[in-house]
């Protein structure tokens, strides 16, 4: 299976995800990133129907709509993002157990002092591995 080697984002995409994460507090935010290869070309926020600060479950109709929009643009799901408002900054056991798209990267937003940060991971049968996030202007 091919895993992304890194995730390339523009700063406006980074900000769009961060704004979504902050707007969902204290619950987890979630969404899809569409693009080609390692390059993110669209950010698609999706409603978290579990209304929890410890887990996310994408609203099925919003998830399908976002997936169709990504596909209609000729792109694929590059990554899935969600937040951990109360930590950890790495995939939780729940994240590892529920990772359904192993060909996509998983971005996790977490509080870091007064700010929020994000790390990217690929999920594998034996666990996860961090991959770099590259920010373009």
How would a textbook summarize the main sheet?
6 strands, mixed
- SSE order, one letter for each helix or strand: EHEEHEHEEEE
Number of DSSP helical runs: 3
Radius of gyration: 14 Å
CATH class: Alpha Beta
Uncertain spans, ≥5 residues at pLDDT below 50?
none
Structural class: alpha/beta
Strand order of the largest sheet: 3-2-4-5-6-7
Helix content: 10-25%
- Count of all domains: 1
The termini sit apart by 31 Å
The CATH architecture classification is 3-Layer(aba) Sandwich
What is the assigned CATH homologous superfamily? Cytidine Deaminase, domain 2
Overall pLDDT level: 93
Which secondary structure elements does this structure contain, and how are they paired or packed?
Blueprint: E1 7-10, H1 11-24, E2 30-36, E3 39-46, H2 60-72, E4 76-83, H3 93-98, E5 105-112, E6 115-124, E7 127-131, E8 133-136
Parallel strand pairs: 1-8, 4-5
Antiparallel strand pairs: 2-3, 2-4, 5-6, 6-7
Textual characterization of the structure:
The mean pLDDT is 93. This protein has helices at residues 11-24, 60-72, 93-98; strands at 7-10, 30-36, 39-46, 76-83, 105-112, 115-124, 127-131, 133-136. The strands form two sheets. Strands 3-2-4-5-6-7 form a six-stranded mixed beta sheet, sandwiched between helices. A two-stranded parallel sheet has the order 1-8. 24% of the residues lie in helices and 39% in strands. It has 137 residues and is an alpha/beta fold. The chain has one domain: Cytidine Deaminase, domain 2 (3-Layer(aba) Sandwich). The N and C termini lie far apart (31 Å).
């Amino acid at each position: 299976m091919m895993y992304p080697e890194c995730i390339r984002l523009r700063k406006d995409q980074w900000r769009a995800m961060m704004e979504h994460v902050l707007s969902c507090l204290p619950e987890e935010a979630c969404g899809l990133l569409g693009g080609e290869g390692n390059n993110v070309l669209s950010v698609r926020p999706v409603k978290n129907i579990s209304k929890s600060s410890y887990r996310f479950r994408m609203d099925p109709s919003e998830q399908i709509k976002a997936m169709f929009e990504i596909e209609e643009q000729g792109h694929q799901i590059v990554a899935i993002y969600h937040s951990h408002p109360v930590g950890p900054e790495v995939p939780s056991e729940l994240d590892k157990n529920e990772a359904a798209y192993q060909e996509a990267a998983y971005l996790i937003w977490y509080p870091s002092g007064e700010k929020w940060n994000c790390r990217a991971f690929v999920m594998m049968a034996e666990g996860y591995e961090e991959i770099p996030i590259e920010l373009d202007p």
